[in-house]
Specification:
Blueprint: E1 5-6, E2 11-14, H1 21-27, E3 32-35, H2 48-57, E4 61-64, H3 73-85, E5 90-93, H4 98-111, H5 116-126
Parallel strand pairs: 2-5, 3-4, 3-5
Antiparallel strand pairs: 1-2
Helix pairs in contact: 3-4
InterPro entries: BLH_phosphatase-like, Prot-tyrosine_phosphatase-like
Domain Beta-lactamase hydrolase-like protein phosphatase-like: 3-110
GO molecular function: hydrolase activity
Length: 136
Amino acid sequence: MTDFRRVTDQLSVSPQIRLDEVVEAANQGFRTIINNRPDGEEPGQPTSLEFEAAAAAEGLAYVHIPVRGGPTPEQVEGVRRVFEESDGPVLAFCRSGTRSIVTWSIGQALGGTYSRDELIRLGREAGYDLSGVLPA
């Protein structure tokens, strides 16, 4: 079951997707997929290479930025760059979607794109509590 959670017109996040959901992502108009889940985090989880092949088969850009725990400044910058370079909506996923929205939102807060309050509201509307992770 697809659980793509819209955050903005340019971003949706999701818990772990299946390889066949890459087709659904393409059908819904996403242009880029960001995988924030490290390979081998859970037995049976599809690998980054499998997702890369599935995305390529659908004409989607694919980026693997694995995050363990809290995102590093390099990971935040990497996600920010993907958004800057994407030619359309982005779907980011990890195990629950939390690392994906946190990594994105920190970059948005640091860049001044959205205020802390706006990001907390966007997160809440998508089902995530960002109040404890965003700089005051």
